[in-house]
Design goal:
Blueprint lengths: L5 H24 L6 H8 L3 H7 L3 H13 L15 H18 L1 H8 L5 H22 L7 H21 L5 H22 L2
Helix pairs in contact: 1-2, 1-4, 1-6, 5-6, 5-7, 5-8, 5-9, 6-8, 7-8, 8-9
Length: 195
Amino acid sequence: MDAPNRSERRRLRRRQRLIDAARQIIAQEGVAALTVTAVTEAADMAVGSFYTYFDSKDDLLEAAVWDVFQQLASPEPPASLPANPLDHAYNAILQVYEFVETQRDLMRAVFGAGHLADQFERGHKLISQRITLVVEQYGIIPAEDVPWIAALQTGLIAGGIGYAIEHPDVTAAEMTERTLKFIVPVWLEYAQAGE
């Protein structure tokens, strides 16, 4: 693929200014404060130019929050899966809490105080998809139990995310260990039942 030309690079920089301004507003005031006017003022751009880069505020929200947040739902390639399902669970949960550490402001907008319900629900679904994949990949838990086990674990992790957002002194590894104290007994119960 050819490198972007000067005009394309300029367009990408201006689009990124709007995304960066949106992330700043979200971090400081929450998703509810995100308006086209606020974003263009923060980016020092004309309101009309906003629509050159985005069709709507929702499109900007996709780029500012959900493009990066989508990483949480991405499954690991099967070839890279650890043999031990608990190691896989540890890695998957650690990835979530590391994401909280690096994207704290965006996670606060989705899971923290003052979040918008639809944004929380969407974040919750992404985590649930990832947990469901982890549970299904090892086949320890019967297929009929996967939905409710994934729902319980997703709620636990969403609560852990809320805690981690408000307690930046707690590391991703510590949050992972704390979360696994609740998850491991369930997995072990199923593993022992299947022996």
